[in-house]
């Protein structure tokens, strides 16, 4: 499975900063087609797949525990600066401290942190426990995405879901792990309660907000590239297609 996970890097992360789609591509990207109908179905069942309603992990030593966080100074203002932090462990070279690409908001930074955690842990075979203090992110995955997917990524008032490109790519990363038989659990933790991992991720995200601005990736392109891996994987009978 470790080699199969490298598909994420080979077909997706090799182009992490492709420019965003042209504004006119928005409506077409929201259209329900046979391809993204599969994504709609997966979003509907993602809650059960991830076991988000299960009890906390009792023995975390058997899991890769990752703390993620997003920070934003002057959130909502034109001068806002957002950063992303992911903590793998003390002095771990995989720790992430980056500026949030694109629009600078706290919620976007929180979503990007989860995305970067999954993209970076591409060679991990252990089950992954993602710990975030963002109730927004947990509810996006656990609750809201189901209805949004059924409604073509529009809210009840028919307005387009904010951050839908990020959310859909995050769901695709999670479903890809499920396809490979890897457990991933998303767990909400209280912020600023002295938990070492949460505090470390918070520090990384705050420092990341001070770094230079980054060009926003084309989230739709990344998601569609990841979707392309599914037919290849099934064609090989679920075997490693990267060998």
UniProtKB/TrEMBL annotation:
<comment type="similarity">
    <text>Belongs to the RNase H family.</text>
</comment>
<dbReference type="Pfam" id="PF00075">
    <property type="entry name" value="RNase_H"/>
</dbReference>
<dbReference type="GO" id="GO:0004523">
    <property type="term" value="F:RNA-DNA hybrid ribonuclease activity"/>
</dbReference>
<keyword id="KW-0540">Nuclease</keyword>
<keyword id="KW-0479">Metal-binding</keyword>
<dbReference type="GO" id="GO:0003676">
    <property type="term" value="F:nucleic acid binding"/>
</dbReference>
<dbReference type="GO" id="GO:0046872">
    <property type="term" value="F:metal ion binding"/>
</dbReference>
<dbReference type="InterPro" id="IPR002156">
    <property type="entry name" value="RNaseH_domain"/>
</dbReference>
<dbReference type="InterPro" id="IPR050092">
    <property type="entry name" value="RNase_H"/>
</dbReference>
<feature type="domain" description="RNase H type-1">
    <location>
        <begin position="60"/>
        <end position="210"/>
    </location>
</feature>
<dbReference type="InterPro" id="IPR012337">
    <property type="entry name" value="RNaseH-like_sf"/>
</dbReference>
<protein>
    <recommendedName>
        <fullName>ribonuclease H</fullName>
        <ecNumber>3.1.26.4</ecNumber>
    </recommendedName>
</protein>
<dbReference type="GO" id="GO:0043137">
    <property type="term" value="P:DNA replication, removal of RNA primer"/>
</dbReference>
<dbReference type="InterPro" id="IPR036397">
    <property type="entry name" value="RNaseH_sf"/>
</dbReference>
<keyword id="KW-0255">Endonuclease</keyword>
<keyword id="KW-0378">Hydrolase</keyword>
